[in-house]
Amino acid sequence: MKKVLICIDYNPTSEMVADMGYQLAKNLDAEVCLLHVIADVQYYGVQYPTFMGYDGFDTEIDLNMSQEMMKVSENFLKTVKEHLGDETITTQIQEGSTADVILEYAKSWRADVIVLGTHSHSILEKIFIGDVASSILKNSKVPVYMVPTKK
Q: Considering its fold, how many domains does the chain have in total?
């Protein structure tokens, strides 16, 4: 295994996912790519406390503008990369349906393993919007390393 794709979203649990995924990659002596999917703008408006040194963004940003979302995402990935302290890490931002984008990017990048966190969503939420982790597990052609993030 030489390529580890670490998928992170804008949530404080991403610190755990990034750290554990990076450790896996280092143990495998593998290349790392951090992937962030812009899928649901509501997460960017949540005012989380600082995590991994990332302070969030100015709430004055017009969240309906794709260009602004890209800037927010670039800043987020830059901060995560700095947190991990490895200049060889590549970053990638994609837009679309999260599970589909992760699977498509993993295939095109030729990832050997996909790392992602599992959020605890309510049963009702899973019925209406689905579960990204379940979809990736069901459809992935490569191993998936799941990081439980529930406290």
A: 1
Judging by DSSP bridges, how do beta strands 113-118 and 3-7 pair with one another? parallel
Domain containing residue 102: CATH number: 3.40.50.620
- CA 112 vs. chain centroid, Å, equals 16
| C-alpha pair distances (Å), 49 with each of 19, 25, 55, 104, 105 | 18, 27, 7, 32, 30
Give the predicted TM-score (pTM) of the model: 0.80
**Range of the structural domain that residue 122 is part of:** 3-148
- What is the CA 89 to chain-centroid distance, rounded? 14
- DSSP labels, 21-79: HHHHHHHHT-EEEEEEEE--GGGGGS-PPPBTTB----TTS-TT-HHHHHHHHHHHHHH
How many helices and strands (H and E) does the chain possess? 5, 5
CB 140 within 8 A of CB 107: no
pLDDT digit string (tens) for 48-101?
A: 667 677 666 555 555 555 677 888 899 999 999 999 999 999 999 999 899 999
